[in-house]
Amino acid sequence: MTKNYGVVYKRVHRSEEGHYQLSSDNDFYAPYDINAENIIEVWAYAASISTHEFEPDDLSPQTIREMFGRLRNEIIELKRNKKARH
């Protein structure tokens, strides 16, 4: 999660001290550099529940939007559950 780009799913590579290059699995999106102070949170991808890995064609902009929509809904649900416990 970044200050300027919001939630992004990228591979992170250190480009220089205090800077990182973010690259997508989908070559439709060009890599870009980001300053460490603009990073709010970093999450690690742990596993896939899918029975197959995504092929490059599966990573169309529409598919990515759908995945982020589901992720947003899961985050909203987690926040609701957290508030209900407090």
Q: How does this structure look, described?
A:
- This is S24 family peptidase.
- It comes from Flavobacterium microcysteis.
- This protein is of the alpha+beta class.
- It has one domain.
- It contains 1 helix and 3 strands.
- The protein has a 3-stranded antiparallel sheet with strand order 1-2-3, with no helix packed on it.
- It is globular, with a radius of gyration of 15 Å.
- The mean pLDDT is 84.
Topology:
Blueprint: E1 11-16, E2 19-23, E3 32-35, H1 61-85
Antiparallel strand pairs: 1-2, 2-3
**Mass-distribution shape:** globular
Q: Quote the average pLDDT.
A: 84
How many domains in all? Answer: 1
Radius of gyration: 15 Å
Give the end-to-end Cα distance, rounded to a whole number of Å. 25 Å
Taken as a percent bin, the fraction of beta residues is: 15-25%
Helix content: 25-40%
DSSP summary: helix tally: 1
Model regions low in confidence, pLDDT < 50 over at least 5 residues: none
Task: Count the E strands.
Answer: 3
Order of helices and strands: EEEH
